[in-house]
């Protein structure tokens, strides 16, 4: 039984994972309402909230799962906000010392790597190893406010980064675009809501790096293009055309993500046996549908993280500590925070 803590940014989270049953409990305190008033995450406030809410969450967890059954503690130790990470690591060390159980650090991004497979395990825990083996090598896309990257998981479960963003992450581009359009934080879901009633072909926004064989992402030019367009419109025109602007802007983000994923599948020459999507922006229905179509074209199964496992959550940390044990940091009481940690070897194709 693994108890996991997550505090990399603005969500305080606790989860318990049983390899024989799956996730037996998840508890989260969201700080969205707090940071919304400031237009984005304020690190000092986020740190304070983690201090306030880990103890109540652990009390709720203990009421549901006897802590004497815990055999390992896992905690996110990077990447993320340094002070926020430090709160989680300190709490995890205290629990591991009290219970005299091993402590491991889990890379937050590797949690996202494995999150699409949580449901696969829950459906048939005893068969997970064999079912996963049939889906490797796996191509995955992580799309969040701070990260956008393509990665591969080989048959030995080794993670290799194929590409990242050269500037803004996709989620960051959506949030910044929303701010330009006068929408509140977090902007991505609001853009998606307005886009549902707009025309995706109303405006022609750039799709990032154009070379077919280039896998890296770029979204700063997209944001700049929107800013220049808005400057040419009156405030009344921006409001009147907001749905079309949101739909076209969102479509540009989705097209860029799908085009690079398609290129990675093509470069894999049919070797990939599954496609995955994770991270906060994975909740975007337009993106999910587009990537599912790409998987169908390649005749491979598509796995998207469940909504509760797309953002910052301890469920994926607990699961990754078990499924990706070779990728965990077993430093124990010497565990340190790694605010700028990466998830594995980077190979440019």
Describe what this molecule looks like in 3D.
- The structure is a single chain.
- It contains 13 helices and eleven strands.
- The chain is an alpha/beta fold and 349 residues long.
- It has a six-stranded mixed β-sheet, with helices on both faces. A five-stranded mixed β-sheet has the order 3-2-1-4-5, sandwiched between helices.
Secondary structure layout:
Elements: E1 2-6, E2 11-18, E3 22-30, H1 32-36, H2 43-64, E4 72-78, H3 82-99, E5 103-107, H4 108-114, H5 118-123, H6 128-133, E6 138-143, E7 148-153, E8 159-164, H7 170-180, H8 187-195, H9 220-231, H10 235-240, H11 242-267, E9 274-278, H12 285-297, E10 302-304, H13 314-323, E11 345-346
Parallel strand pairs: 1-4, 4-5, 6-9, 8-11, 9-10
Antiparallel strand pairs: 1-2, 2-3, 6-7, 7-8
Helix pairs in contact: 2-3, 4-13, 7-8, 7-9, 7-11, 8-11, 11-12
Task: Write a compact overview of the structure shown.
The protein is an alpha/beta fold and 349 residues long. It is built from 13 helices and 11 strands.
Descriptive tags:
349 residues; alpha/beta; Nucleotidyltransferase, domain 5; 6-stranded mixed β-sheet; 5-stranded mixed β-sheet; 13 helices; 43% helix; 18% strand; globular; transferase; EC 2.3.1.234; peptidase activity; tRNA N(6)-L-threonylcarbamoyladenine synthase activity
């Amino acid at each position: 039984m693994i108890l996991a803590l997550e505090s990399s940014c603005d969500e305080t989270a606790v989860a318990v994972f049983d390899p024989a049953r799956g996730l037996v409990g998840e508890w989260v305190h969201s700080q969205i309402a707090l940071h919304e008033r400031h237009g984005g995450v304020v690190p000092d406030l986020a740190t304070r909230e983690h201090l306030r809410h880990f103890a109540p969450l652990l009390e709720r967890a203990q009421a549901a799962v006897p802590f004497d059954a815990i055999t390992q503690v896992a905690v996110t130790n990077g990447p993320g906000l340094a002070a926020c990470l430090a709160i989680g690591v300190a709490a995890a060390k205290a629990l591991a010392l009290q219970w005299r159980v091993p402590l491991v650090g889990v890379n937050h991004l590797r949690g996202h790597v494995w999150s699409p497979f949580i449901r696969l395990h829950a459906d048939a825990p005893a068969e997970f190893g064999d079912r996963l083996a049939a889906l490797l090598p796996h191509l995955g896309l992580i799309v969040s406010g701070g990260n956008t990257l393509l990665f591969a998981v080989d048959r030995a479960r080794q993670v290799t980064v194929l590409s990242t963003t050269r500037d803004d992450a996709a989620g960051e581009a959506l949030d910044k675009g929303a701010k330009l359009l006068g929408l509140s934080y977090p902007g991505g879901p609001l853009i998606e809501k307005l886009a549902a009633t707009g025309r995706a072909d109303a405006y022609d926004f750039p799709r990032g790096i154009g070379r077919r064989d280039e896998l890296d992402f770029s979204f700063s030019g997209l944001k700049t293009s929107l800013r220049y367009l808005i400057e040419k419109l009156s405030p009344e025109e921006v409001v009147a055309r907001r749905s079309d602007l949101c739909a076209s802007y969102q479509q540009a983000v989705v097209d860029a993500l799908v085009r690079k994923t398609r290129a990675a599948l093509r470069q894999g020459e049919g070797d990939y046996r599954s496609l995955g999507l994770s991270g906060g922006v994975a909740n975007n229905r337009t993106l999910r549908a587009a990537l599912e179509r790409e998987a169908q074209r390649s005749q491979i199964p598509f796995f998207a993280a469940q909504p509760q496992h797309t953002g910052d959550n301890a469920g994926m940390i607990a699961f990754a500590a078990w499924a990706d044990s070779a990728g965990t940091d077993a430093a124990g009481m010497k565990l340190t925070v790694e605010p700028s940690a990466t998830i594995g070897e980077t190979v440019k194709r």
